[in-house]
Amino acid sequence: MVNYRFLGNSGLKISEITLGNWVTHASQVSDDAAVRTVHAALDAGITTFDTADTYANTAAETVLGDALQGQRRAGLEIFTKVFFPTGPMGPNDTGLSRKHIFESIDGSLQRLQTDYVDLYQAHRYDHETPLEETMQAFADVVRQGKALYIGVSEWTAEQLREGHALSKQLGFQLISNQPQYSMLHRVIEGKVVPASEELGISQIVWSPMAQGVLSGKYLPGQPVPAGSRATDDKSGANFISKFLRDDILEAVQRLKPIAADAGLTMPQLAIAWVLQNPNIAAALVGASRPEQLADTVKASGVVLDDDTKAAIDTALGDVVFSDPEDTYTVSPKQRLV
Asked: Which family is it part of (predicted)?
């Protein structure tokens, strides 16, 4: 069964392996398969589910809401996000303006079939809306009981500091950040994690398996597997492309004996590695089939010894993305519509 961790400086506990539905629900898999996967997650002790209004242009929220019907609401932690364009993608159908936040939370609650979400997240930083307007809108959403806590995604250390200060002034808690993080992508370690530790903010990390590259199934000098994420533009092919260099794929192959020595599969090693960082509250995983989760959840509670972690660093060498300046390039400078 899955272990639980506190989310930021709050009393909220979440499952340290969290099921996300970015490229699966209403996209890669049928609705029936999505329901079976959600139920398999629940059976494994996963109680935390992450989605966003922009996934499949709102349809992923609907699928998750349907899949969770009949479950005890107080026993679940449901997360969603706001920022990216949705609906007909008009000029106010994006960003973190008061108008878009208020309209988006109501739409998300309707699709998720719930009166509130446990965590409402700014999916990116909005450079075109005053931060004071955004944080006041979030404060009002919390006071209305539509969200219990507020989080963000891919914010820089400075943005986290500014947002945290405003949240304290406005009387609510900013408790989480959702960045990309894996053995291969460690850009948050330099600035974001130290600032978050100081502020009482946890990371809920996405792509702990580097879009599947850390499974070891992508081989250097070989075509990508048919039907894999690398072949599907709807499934994050642009995100995985940077990891498909031969030097990276060769380094990943060197992880296989390390995983075997630790008694782990490659996916388990990747997720367990992420969870060794005490600032990480949860690793976000996706699954298109229930049996994938049966392997993944075994990473919960695994402790990697210092020799294993050192061997991982040696195997990967200099192919790791670690420049903290990369955190400043994620949020778009202008809205996307």
From this structure: Belongs to the shaker potassium channel beta subunit family.
